[in-house]
Amino acid sequence: MRGSNGPDAAEELSARIEAAAAGTPYRTRRTEWGLELTVDVDVPQWQELLTRSRITQVHTYRVELRPEQRVFTLTDVVRAVEYGAGLGGVRLGRTLSMGRSVYTTSYRTLGGGEQYTFSSAEGHRLIRGAAREAGWREERPTSVKIAAGAGIFGGLVALGVLVALAVVFWP
């Protein structure tokens, strides 16, 4: 089945990713364009004398499949909801981040016993490992290509400005 393209190849890769995620905190959900691998990120909660704060964060790895070429794109979608309540009132906040996110969250309980660590690279490795075994290759998502292009363009503009300033003000 490794050499096949089309719906069978997409089914094979989805099954491999689901098998790799079995027994882990990751949840899989198939979609019309591929699948999503989702994990709840444990973020520490805290309470002060008259204030309580809480953050809920969910990291989703969106895998879009193009089985005809055996190509996939991987996009990170990080959703966070934060609230705080206390004497100053209630504060609510919500963030959504899409693109390529690589980060680590880690904390230890006050007693120093229990420790929690999450790395977004773990999900990337899980997906890429299953894809490599099935003979798929990864392409960057459009958002990452646009960001790289904008960064290169900005760097060239800055270099041009420096050269122009050097020419104008050189003794």
Description:
- The protein is an alpha+beta fold and 171 residues long.
- The chain has helices at 7-21, 120-133, 142-169, and strands at 27-31, 34-41, 46-47, 52-66, 71-86, 89-99, 104-108, 115-119, 137-139.
- Strands 1, 2, 3, 4, 5, 6 and 9 form a seven-stranded mixed sheet that branches. A two-stranded antiparallel ribbon has the order 7-8.
- A hairpin with a 4-residue loop joins strand 4 (52-66) and strand 5.
- Helix 1 (7-21) packs across helix 2.
- The longest helix has 28 residues, at 142-169.
- It is flat.
- The termini are far apart.
- The model has no long low-confidence stretch (mean pLDDT 87).
Q: Using the CA coordinates, give the radius of gyration.
A: 22 Å
* Helix content bin: 25-40%
Please work out how many helical segments DSSP would assign. 3
Classification by helices and strands: alpha+beta
Runs in which pLDDT lies below 50 for 5 or more consecutive residues are none
Total count of strands: 9
Strand content: 35-45%
First-last Cα distance: 70 Å
H/E topology pattern: HEEEEEEEEHEH
Write down the oligomeric state. Answer: single chain
Q: Main sheet, how many strands, which sense, barrel? A: 7 strands, mixed
Shape designation: flat
Mean pLDDT: 87
